[in-house]
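Changelog-adjacent note: as of this version, every example in the card shows the full chain rather than a window. The one below runs 166 residues end to end.
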Amino acid sequence: MQRLFFAFIGSVFLLASQPSPDRVAALRADLTGDIERSKKQTQVMIDSVFSFAELGFQEVETSRYLTAILEKEGFQVERGIAGIPTAWMASWGSGKPVISLGSDIDCIPQASQKPGVAYFDPLMPVRQDTEKDITRVCHSRSPLHLRLSGCSSAKKCQELYASGRA
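Full-length structure tokens:
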């Protein structure tokens, strides 16, 4: 699934520019290598975001962590989107194609990490709060982390293609 997603993102850039078959093969090889190299960092992102366990509109550490990664990768980050301090938008480049990805980064109070369970019954408590148990559920394992890794790989692929190195 992860490779399929990254291959899709990379293919969008490839199809938009219609390079030669040799360049397509080189770009795919580079993208595949980049995906393989990013596996550990992607898992670190998943584990880190999982550990923050922040409720909606309070995702301060999660937002800080993810936007720092994107800025390090060369994305421009605009914070406070729609007047929400923890909302942000990251962009890179200009022109077409324009690709938009979105995801929730909050956790849900009084929920379960078990599929199909709609009451508080966590597999593992993330942190105890004085007022309520906060359990990170589905959003922590959402494709957001894969999207960030995919965007980074697609950006590198596009940069290689634009520079003529691939």
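Structural remarks: The chain has one domain: 2-163.
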